[in-house]
Amino acid sequence: MQKHDGRSEKEKMLAGELYRASGPEIAADVLRAERLFSAYNDTAAGDAAQRAAILADLLGSVGKDVVLRPPFYCDYGYNIHLADGVFANFGCVFLDVAAIEVGQGAQIGTCVQLLTADHPRDPALRRQGLECGRPVRIGANVWIGSGAIILPGVTIGDDAIVGAGSVVTRDVPDGATVMGNPARMRKPSQNMA
């Protein structure tokens, strides 16, 4: 469905505006992503070259020495940008209706969700089927524990730690440790060598 300005729903989505997740462009992009991540998830551990080729087709950009252990799921793929040395363990979900940027050497635990998809707070707009996206940015050398959920619009600074099972609802400064639901800053109890 198009508004009077003639832009497609995909164009509105990519601009970060309210849009409907419908129309031929969005449907084609979803099918493309599902085909690619399904092929990726069907690869064997020894198929490093095949995995790299599929990720290069699926994602917006992928650095050197990236490890993304299947299964992995996303909306579109082309809004995901992984820097060199990113590691993501089994079962991650990256809902990328807006940009997801993961910095160099970031480590992401099992079943982590990076969510850019959002919905209006106004129930009348939700009834109209409108949604939106806000980017997620993960800094360099960040460690995100298993089962953490990073909500739309959140930026996690370089060298930060997100505890397992945390729900991150706001930005995390460089070097901070956050944990809990909602995630709150904690002082590290001890340094580990």
From TrEMBL:
InterPro entries registered for this protein in UniProt: Hexapep, Hexapep_transf_CS, Hexapeptide_acetyltransf, Mac_dom, Trimer_LpxA-like_sf
Keyword vocabulary terms for this entry: Acyltransferase, Repeat, Transferase
Gene3D superfamilies: Hexapeptide repeat proteins
Classification via PROSITE patterns: HEXAPEP_TRANSFERASES
Pfam families: Hexapep, Mac
Statement: the UniProt record of this protein carries the keyword Metal-binding: no
Highest taxon listed in the record's lineage: Bacteria
Residue ranges occupied by any Maltose/galactoside acetyltransferase domain in the UniProt entry: 10-64
KW NAD (keyword) present: no
Family label: Belongs to the transferase hexapeptide repeat family.
Protein name: Sugar O-acetyltransferase
